[in-house]
Amino acid sequence: MAQDDNTTDTTEYKPALIDPEAFQTILGVQFEDSAVLERALTHRSYANENAPDGVQNNERLEFLGDAILDFIVADMLFRRFPNMTEGEMTRVRAALVRTEALAKLGAECRIGEALRMGRGEERSGGRERETNVCRAFEALIGAIYLDKGLETVRDFVIPRFNALQDSVMDDAINKDPRSQFQEWAQAVHGITPTFHVTGTDGPEHEIEFVVEAHLGAQSVAEGRGRSKRAAAQSAATTALDLLSRGRLQFTAPESAQTDDDHR
Q1: In sequence order, what DSSP letters do the residues of 118-146 get, joined into one string?
Q2: Of the residues 138, 147, 212, 241, which is catalytic?
């Protein structure tokens, strides 16, 4: 006799696997306002499933946390490395706040287990998905800032960035931006970036070249420099910075590899 299809899935759905109190113990941070932590731990899928109850997702907190992390890392690099150039600081910052790096920090504090998720997202492996973990970590940073202030955020994230710093520093400084951007584009999308001079500015003795970085037919970033090479490196640096912020505007061809380019 055929079994009823309704009996085949015995997996119990839980919106979160760790309750907020236990999660605060893991973090070593106790919130005064439990509501802001709850919101930071609410994925869009859960909010959508519970919209009639007025549940809000964590995306506004993610936006805030992203900006705070950018500032803290920039400030840390500026103070710690007085001889580091602007371009080097940009590349190191991009490496420290990229999706993979923040997802690693989020996984270390088990934020995926604490995240409230909808049924479909949870069952599709959403708790381990890098973009979800990264975004939840950014939202957590926004929540800590609102509840405890900037110094508490510093105390929370600086030791974690210190542990990441050595692993990313050499590549970020010693590998030029064009090579880094090319490696990312080839690994993620199977595309080799191209760079095109689109114009010049300034008088002949102080000419500045304008170069666009392209992925396929799409222009994704612009750079300027006193030589074509410098302008191309500037365009690649801009592309890496946009990529780290989740703002690189690129639609991958259907035949290419795709990824959620959040950081």
Answers
A1: -HHHHHTTTTT-HHHHHHHHHHHHHHHHH
A2: 138
Question: Can you read off the two tokens belonging to residue 87?
Answer: 């371009």
Q: What pLDDT score was predicted for residue 2?
A: 46
70 as an active site residue: the answer is no
Q: What fold is seen in the domain 177-244?
A: Double Stranded RNA Binding Domain (3.30.160)
CB 185 within 8 A of CB 200: no
Q: Supply 60's token pair.
A: 């506004």
Question: And the tokens for 81?
Answer: 């490395």
Q: What is the pTM of this model?
A: 0.67
- Given the residues 66, 121, 130, 261, the one annotated as active site: 66
Residues of the chain with CATH 3.30.160.20: 177-244
- Average pLDDT per consecutive 10 residues, the chain (263 residues; last block may be shorter): 47 83 94 96 91 87 96 94 84 85 93 92 89 95 98 95 76 75 86 93 86 94 91 91 82 55 43
Widest distance between CA atoms in the chain: 87
Q: Which ranges in the chain are annotated with CATH 1.10.1520.10? A: 12-174
Q: Which pLDDT score, from 0 to 100, does residue 88 have?
A: 80
* Cα distances (angstroms) measured from residue 56 to each of 38, 59, 60, 123, 164: 9, 9, 9, 21, 32
Fold of the 12-174 domain: Ribonuclease iii, N-terminal Endonuclease Domain; Chain A (1.10.1520)
Q: Is 208 a catalytic residue?
A: no
